[in-house]
Write a structure and sequence with these properties.
The mean pLDDT is about 95. The longest helix is centred in the first third of the chain and has 14 residues. About 30% of the residues lie in helices and about 30% in strands. The chain is built from eight helices and 15 strands. Strands 7, 8, 9, 10, 11, 12, 13, 14 and 15 form a nine-stranded mixed sheet that branches. By secondary structure, it is of the alpha+beta class.
């Protein structure tokens, strides 16, 4: 994007001039991890939590971080300061590094930090809710946030063709898991239910669970289509989507087909936490 400055392997430079070596395993093999967050009032939200998840993702695929988390945090802050954005999305990418044989990870991995303007979604998504569709997919190493997003890109294209905003993964046992870039929740009365196993534990998800625990009965467990049929409300969470109500899943209308009071309460509480002075 014109005018933006990024960080790539030790240098700050315009995005238009940034490059990654063609022998990097991220290019040759799709070997790498990343994390994504945004700012509020210009400050990265839960940066330490995102860096811990980044480090854990790297450990799961035997990829060493190129810098300690504290140093990556300083690079993130420096990158933000070099860009004139009121609010920013932040993408931290650890690449596999340059491999002379095209497959063996080298001692040194790569590091990229990108910032972009925060994307806003239509107000109707939050006032009326969205449609999502389910896609059968068993993720490999679901707790690792890797750069391999081919299944997600394909699923999102299928969702778009079906008039849906997000695709929700369902495994071969017909358990509902998570979205391509989101976590999934349902309310049954005052019970808040969200999958626990075989998902990427979202930072926004953790914030929502913390907000909900003193008001609702919270259950982290298997989520089935029977649970979905009995749901009064549903929503997804993500750093860029925050708390976004779900009005339909496939051809099923959730509850009365409108944003419910419990979801609205969480939306308001999440906004109060993120936008507090």
């Amino acid at each position: 994007m014109p005018g933006l400055i990024c960080y790539v392997n030790g240098s700050f430079l315009p995005v238009s001039e940034a490059a990654v070596p063609v022998q990097d395993l991220a290019v040759l093999r799709g070997y790498g991890v990343f994390d994504f967050l945004r700012t509020y009032h210009g400050q990265p939200f839960r940066l330490d939590d995102h860096l811990r998840r980044l480090e854990f993702s790297a450990q799961l695929i035997y990829l060493a971080l190129p810098r300690p988390p504290a140093e990556i945090a300083r690079i993130v802050t420096d990158t933000l300061h070099r860009n004139d954005l009121p609010e920013a999305n932040i993408r931290i990418v650890v690449t596999g590094g340059v491999a002379s044989d095209g497959i063996t990870p080298p001692a040194n991995s790569g590091l990229i930090v990108l910032v972009t303007p925060v994307r806003t979604y239509p107000v109707s998504y939050y006032e009326q809710g969205i449609k999502v569709m389910t896609v059968e997919h068993d993720r490999y190493l679901p707790r690792a946030k890797t750069i391999n997003y081919i299944p997600a890109i394909v699923a999102l294209k299928q969702a778009e063709l079906a008039g849906a905003v997000e695709a929700i993964y369902v495994n071969r046992r017909r358990h509902i898991l998570e979205g391509t870039t989101t976590n999934f929740f349902v309310f049954q009365g005052s019970q808040l239910i969200t999958p626990k196993d075989d998902i990427l534990p979202g930072v926004t998800r953790d914030v929502v669970l913390s907000l909900a625990k003193d008001k609702f009965d919270v259950f982290e467990r298997l989520l089935t289509f029977d649970d979905l049929a009995r749901a009064d409300e549903a929503f997804i969470t993500a750093s860029n989507k925050e708390v976004m109500p779900v009005q339909r899943v496939n051809d099923l209308t959730i509850g009365p087909g409108q944003v419910g009071p419990n979801t609205r309460w969480l939306m308001d509480r999440f906004r109060a936490v993120t936008w507090k002075s």
